[in-house]
Amino acid sequence: MNLSRFASRLRMAEEISKKVGSSSTASVADSSAATSAATNAAKSRWKILWPNSLRWIPTSTDYIIAAEKRLLSILKTPYVQEQVNIGSGPPGSKIRWFRSTSNESRYINTVTFDAKEGAPTLVMVHGYGASQGFFFRNFDALASRFRVIAIDQLGWGGSSRPDFTCRSTEETEAWFIDSFEEWRKTQNLSNFILLGHSFGGYVAAKYALKHPEHVQHLILVGSAGFSAEADAKSEWLTKFRATWKGAVLNHLWESNFTPQKLIRGLGPWGPGLVNRYTTARFGAYSEGTVLTEEEAKLLTDYVYHTLAAKASGELCLKYIFSFGAFARKPLLQSASEWKVPTTFIYGMNDWMNYQGAVEARKSMKVPCEIIRVPQGGHFVFIDNPSGFHSAVLYACRKFISQDSSHDQQLPDGLRLV
Predict the structure, then answer these.
(1) Are 89 and 183 in contact (CB under 8 A)?
(2) Helix (H, G, I), strand (E, B) or coil at 211
(3) 196: which strand partners?
(4) Cα separation of 218 and 343, whole Å?
(5) Is 45 exposed, middle or buried (0-12, 13-18, 19+ CB in 10 A)?
(6) How far apart are CA 86 and CA 81, in angstroms?
(7) By the 8 A CB rule, do 143 and 124 touch?
(8) Which of 61, 87, 287, 338 could form a disulfide with 377 if both were Cys (CB 3.0 to 4.6 A apart)?
(9) How do residues 289-348 score in pLDDT, each as one tens digit?
(10) What sections of 116-258 are H helices per DSSP?
């Protein structure tokens, strides 16, 4: 009797436990659903209160490559984009980018355009704060005469962005020169025409000094690096540094504060600042042909992503140049060692002084020409594409012309210095 009564009570307890458990589970589920609904409602209210214009814009190498493809989609010439593996560094290398915190491979973002068989190879190197997409107005025209290859230098654009560990001018130059040489080896290139713009001109010239056997002809477009702070014309800089504004700017420069840091720091306002720059520089204040609305939109998007990505190659600035963009190791000092025939191209209104090239030519023992292009500033290849193309073709006339006597004439509008 007692056992029967105990068994009955046990069954009653189990039933009560099941009901309580079921009720508890339902309560938890209801609570979870309520929490999820509240979270979604909060997100919706946040989106309403925090408009798109105030949200941070993400970026990465993938975003850069996607923006590059959109920009180059307006071209007519087919091309191949690839990430060229340059490895983690040659054995025994003393260059810091080869010895970074990891042994992972590095990649150089490369675009190669279709060309006629036997066409000379033209390798194009961008300047500071830029990437190979800046040549978008030139690829179609140049690809009709050359096998055009354009790259993003290590630490720029869609290339790998290792931690920048250089601490001297020598190490910084090696970062760019040696990574370019590793890329050249991987691509099995030799006897090519090397074109560099601005800081890219500095790198191209330093590369040609170290590896002249691979370069047929050197084209330096608005090249940096031909003036030093010791030049007589730098007196204004000494006076400016004595002012409080000059002292602040000089401190920022030596602290390696770059324009890209400003873009990143502005967060959601970064794209707007880039848009104002591109529309002003290549629109209202253009030296020549203004960008179309589509070109301006695509270029702005591309430029923003290349500037806002992880800091890497941009940190070279203070090691290569002193405040005022004066080279710490001026190319003028190496002019007598030049072994590659060279053509300098400057826009008529380029802020980079062509007189540096004039001085360098006096010491050169190789053929050297200086061409000035009308209606062009520092970005002469964007300002006046047709004039720029004429200058490049003239510089390379002996490589592309079948009738050398015909191509000896300087195209109309260009000026030889």
Answers:
(1) no
(2) coil
(3) 125, 220
(4) 6
(5) exposed
(6) 15
(7) no
(8) 287
(9) 889 999 999 999 999 999 999 999 999 999 999 887 789 999 999 999 999 999 999 999
(10) 139-143, 169-187, 199-210, 235-241, 244-254
Q: What is the pTM of this model?
A: 0.84
Q: How far apart are CA 326 and CA 169, in angstroms?
A: 13
CA distances (Å), 133 to each of 109, 210, 281, in order?
11, 27, 16
Amino acid at 413: G
* Exposed / middle / buried, residue 41 (Cβ in 10 Å: 0-12, 13-18, 19+): exposed
Contact 263, 368 (CB under 8 A): no
User: Which of these, 316, 341, 311, 339, lies nearest to 329 by C-alpha position?
Assistant: 316
Query: Residue 254 is encoded by which pair of tokens?
Result: 């030596």
Q: DSSP H helical segments within 255-353, as ranges? A: 259-265, 270-279, 293-308, 317-320
CA angle 361, 337, 122 (to 5 degrees): 75
Element (H, E) at 104: none
Task: Write the CB contacts of 170 (distance below 8 Å, at least 6 apart in sequence).
Answer: none
Cα angle 385, 387, 390; round to 5: 110
**pLDDT digit string, tens, across residues 267-290:** 888 899 999 999 888 876 677 788
E runs forming strands in 296-410:
321-322, 326-327, 342-347, 368-373
Question: Are the CB atoms for 238 and 250 separated by under 8 Å?
Answer: no
DSSP classification of residue 291: P
Q: What are phi and psi of 175, to 5 degrees?
A: -50, -50
Q: In the structure encoding, which two tokens stand for residue 378, read together?
A: 């520092």
